[in-house]
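User: My instructor asked us to take a sequence, write out its structure as tokens, and then describe one feature of it. I'm not sure where to start. Here is the sequence I was given:
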Amino acid sequence: MKSLVVFLSLSVFLSSSQAAIPVLFSYDGTEAVRNRSIKLDFSINDEGVVSLDASTQSPDTHANVAVDKWDNENIGTVEDKSLFGKSFSLQSFGENEKGGSPPLILRPEEGGVLGVGGHNPGRIDGTGIKTGPNKEKMSWVFSGDVELVLMGFSCGLVTNNSGIIVEDADSDMRTGPLKIGTPAKQDILQGTLSLVDGEKLVFKADPDLMQGAGLVGFDFEIKSPE
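Assistant: Let's start with the prediction itself. The structure tokens for your sequence are:
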């Protein structure tokens, strides 16, 4: 597996010849909510406009309302006409190294931060548990006949000596160690991390750091698979 270090950059979403499509885990509630899984369904119309329909499997009404607010009829656009009429999805769930299936936790700090339940809910961590590590990860499974290229992501609930690792099928990238007050936007070299149908993007605890971080959001481009 290739391994690279992510360098910090400005906390803004990237732009390129095709504008990146942003996903923000915004939340205007006051208490954390639990989600069993979250699904993001994207559709491209015949003019290249990308829409998002977000949903969650949760018995918590507040969680359902929060995720429904991510719906967007125009979250971005594509210029490649071969992509018009296409649809694709990302479905997320939490895991830990002991075989557990912890919930996804959406917290109100910083306008909305998504993490994994367990050690410090709202972060993806588990390395620093006093009774022994139980490292957590958040996986996003991709479905669709397009290719998704991750352009960047934003960390939240950052503390000193914190960070996470993000990986696709054949590459991984470290984000830490982050410190309080440093920009938390991680810019990724274009093409380094990408997904095709059936592959997954994984954000996981860094075994070399005592603290993790949550996700504020990420942005990506899509293209026809090669």
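For the description part of your assignment, you could build on this observation: Residues 1-17 have pLDDT under 50 and may be disordered. Try explaining in your own words what that tells you about the chain.
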